[in-house]
Specification:
Elements lengths: L2 E5 L4 H12 L3 E6 L17 E5 L14 E4 L6 H6 L1 H22 L2 E7 L26 H21 L3 E6 L2 E2 L10 H10 L4 E4 L5 E3 L1 E2 H12 L6 E4 L4 E3 H11 L6 E4 L14 H7 L7 H14 L12
Parallel strand pairs: 1-2, 1-4, 2-3, 4-5, 5-6, 6-11, 7-10, 8-13
Antiparallel strand pairs: 9-12
Helix pairs in contact: 1-6, 3-4, 5-7
This protein binds nicotinamide-adenine-dinucleotide (NAD).
């Protein structure tokens, strides 16, 4: 039975990952300081093969016994979170990744870094292949996240080259699904909550900026395939189906049968105009592509939010 550590395991993606790995027969250790995560995301996983450790991964990580895999997902991830927590974001991307890689070296574990499409910044190449180096403003408000992840990638490759650690880097594009927090500032939960309350949907700019949204089950499957592959360079995981944010808002109004209107608000600083993964590499080496259509993923996510009796349960203690 593989023994696996998931940092950031009480967050949105981390909790889905813990669940997936348990189903694959792993013994899972979930480490999280609950900065933006929520214990409610992992309550249902408690059992003999699952252990939660409350710990800040920027501090030395001690775990007794063997570890086969480390998946490093700890980091604030939504723009609202990392702009409110800029120093914690830089620390977890740098010091947290250092500590997690140090543990991988000690345990001779396979290490997977959760990186992001944000390493491409406001891209000048479209769609974005892994070879594109990106267009990031290092001193803008989003730089704290983008540069933390770029540093984390560089550190991961250094540990691979110098210490021979079996490392993987997944560049995750926008993912959505159950367990997102309503107020994390990302478009889909914001639109869904506004639509369910029949309040105006807030679209930034004129809504013509595009994003490519992938349903969480597909993203997790792609991450797992990368984990067990023998590939060590970064791989994009995302759904290439590109939509404008205005189209997304209209689709959510339609699927929720909402009476909401759409309100336009000023565009945030350095907001990327386009975002679409080139997933040729993932198709070739992982035989992976997203299978769940965006509309189906939206239906499942809307149902999950509808069935939540207490919306406050989607909030973390700190944000
Ligand atoms: N959701 C997406 O669309 C997306 C896209 C690209 C990359 N990612 C990456 O995936 C990972 C998870 O993102 P998410 O959407 O699940 O976000 P999330 O905020 O739901 O989860 C992040 C988790 O990390 C924990 N954490 C933060 N700092 C920590 C620290 N110092 N020590 C221990 N735990 C800490 C938080 O408490 C939280 O549980 C992040 O690394 C993010 O950069 C996510």
């Amino acid at each position: 039975m593989p023994r696996t550590l998931v940092t950031g395991g009480a967050g949105f993606l981390g909790s889905h990952l813990c669940e997936y790995l348990l189903n694959k027969g792993h013994q899972v250790i979930c480490m999280d300081n609950l900065l933006t995560g929520n214990i409610a995301n992992i309550e249902h996983l408690q059992g003999e093969n699952f252990k939660f450790i409350k710990h800040d991964v920027t501090e030395y990580i001690f775990i007794a016994g063997e570890i086969d895999y480390i998946l490093h997902f700890a980091s604030p991830a939504s723009p609202i979170d990392y702009m409110q927590l800029p120093i914690q974001t830089l620390k977890v991307g740098s010091m947290g990744t250092h500590k997690a890689l140090g543990l991988a070296k000690e345990k001779k574990a396979t290490f997977l870094l959760a990186s992001t499409s944000e390493v491409y910044g406001d891209p000048l190449v479209h769609p974005q292949p892994e070879e594109y180096w990106g267009n990031v403003n290092p001193v803008g408000p989003r730089g704290v996240y983008d540069e933390a992840k770029r540093f984390a990638e560089a550190l991961t490759m250094a540990y691979h080259r110098i210490h021979g650690i079996n490392t993987k880097i997944v560049r995750i594009f926008n993912t959505f699904g159950p367990r997102m927090r309503l107020k994390d500032g990302r478009a889909i939960p914001a639109f869904i909550s506004q639509a369910l309350m029949n309040k105006p949907l807030t679209v930034f700019g004129d809504g013509s900026q595009t994003r490519s949204f992938c349903y969480v089950d597909d993203t997790i499957e792609g991450i797992y395939r990368l984990l067990i592959s023998d590939y060590n360079q970064p791989v994009n995981i995302g759904n290439p189906h590109e939509m404008t944010l205005l189209e997304m808002a209209q689709k959510i109004i339609e699927l929720t049968n909402s009476q909401s209107s759409i309100e336009f608000h000023p565009l945030p600083v350095d907001d990327p105009k386009v975002r679409q993964p080139d997933i040729s590499l993932a198709k070739r080496i992982l035989n992976w592509e997203a299978k769940i259509p965006v509309e189906e993923g939206l239906r499942r996510t809307i149902n999950w939010f509808r069935n939540l009796r207490d919306w406050s349960k989607t909030q973390s203690d700190n944000t």
